[in-house]
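Our consortium's second objective concerns turning raw sequence data into structural hypotheses that experimental partners can test. To show how far this objective has progressed, the report includes one record in full. It was chosen at random from the queue rather than selected for favorable results. The single chain below, 290 residues long, was entered without modification.
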Amino acid sequence: MLANAKLKLLKVLEILMETDEGHPLTALQIADKLKLYGIDAERKSICRDINILKDDAGYDIALSEDNKQGYYMVSRNFEDWELKILIDAVWGAKFLTQDNADKLATKLRSMASESSRNMLSATTPVKLKIKSSNVTTKINIDSILRAIKNDRKIKFQYSYMAIDLKPKLRKDGFFYTVNPYALIWQNEHYYLIANYDKYDNLSYYRLDRMKSLVISDDKRKPANELLGSNADLQIEQYVRASLYHYGGQKIAIPLELQLLKKVLFSLFGRIASHNGMELLCLRTKKRYIL
């Protein structure tokens, strides 16, 4: 009996998750939907369940101003516009396969009401990005996250694109051992920020070029041990200072603008004036320079 009551409560919540302010459901309508699951319930018991969800479980459920229209879910973990941004990001991620993107987008839409799901599908009718057929990035993300969670090093082979446009392994298939710290998505690709065991600095590794990745039994070197205090900030500064994921010496480049001002501004920073001459302020290596 108790198990049936719990199941009914969960199903009432599931049904209410399909509602919104424009599409409420009365207790009798909820009862009709419960019958589809083989559950018979009276209107009063459904109202009790809704009160439990509101008062004890903290769900934001409201009765419409015209109470004959019924109940609806007021707020959710994600607003519609937030889900739209996330869905667009999924379809814009070139490294995801068509199947991966479709499944992720479906999961994101499931967090919305029924009417919002239809709207989100209608407003994303064309998936213009070329999708990858390579599942390596997805698998590597999962393995790296597990390694970081369990505080372990990882080992992998690293590939490059040879002159014949075929991938080749660097150093004859040598296995790199690194201490993984962060993952970032930039310029259509995912990158690992890690410390190569031989050195005391940080390096970038592109995930789709990492082959045969395995989690090591060796404990990962703590970031604070490598970078000192505020390791997270040090990693952030490293990312900001890297140009196309390459390190190097910091240099200041004065640049007088005559043409392409708007293009350069959108790429690099802001326009400033110095001694009557218009200059571009480049944000490089975490500082503005003239």
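The partners drew two points from this record. Residues 80-122 form one domain. Confidence is low (pLDDT under 50) at residues 282-290. Both points have been shared with the crystallography group to help prioritize constructs.
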